[in-house]
Amino acid sequence: MSTHLARSTDPATSQLAAEQLTTAQTHCRLLLEAYATHPEGLTDYEACALAGLPREAHKRCSDLRRLGAIVFTGRTRLGEANRLRSVSSLPTIPFREDLFG
């Protein structure tokens, strides 16, 4: 995944905004991109690896869960050292028929 926050063709305002993002915000954005490309879910460490981030960035996954941007799926899978790791994914939005009459 790219770590560029603005394309050279983006307006100057987008480029300025990208420069003002903190490292934590940048990590969160890259992690969300990883989760978006894997709807089946990822462990925190898998998401970091796919996003090209250091393992220590897994702390941002807790931030994303607290904000409701990702949720635990209730599933686990084996990670490094044969330890079970929780799997998270982007939340699914249930269809509400009552909104459409």
Topology, element by element:
Layout lengths: L11 H8 L3 H14 L7 H8 L7 H9 L3 E8 L5 E6 L12
Antiparallel strand pairs: 1-2
Properties at a glance:
two-stranded antiparallel sheet; flat; Arc Repressor Mutant, subunit A
Polypeptide structure, described:
This protein is α+β, with helices and mostly antiparallel strands. It has one domain: Orthogonal Bundle (Arc Repressor Mutant, subunit A), CATH 1.10.10.10. Helix content is 39%, strand content 14%. It contains 4 helices and 2 strands, in the order ααααββ. The protein has a two-stranded antiparallel ribbon. Helix 2 packs across helix 3. The protein is flat and about 45 Å long. The termini are far apart. The model has no long low-confidence stretch (mean pLDDT 87).
Rg measurement, Å:
16 Å
Strand content: 5-15%
Please give the share of residues in helix: 25-40%
Q: What would CATH call the architecture?
A: Orthogonal Bundle
Instruction: Output the structural class.
Output: alpha+beta
CATH superfamily: Winged helix-like DNA-binding domain superfamily/Winged helix DNA-binding domain
Encode the helix/strand succession as letters. Answer: HHHHEE
**Principal-axis shape:** flat
Largest sheet: 2 strands, antiparallel
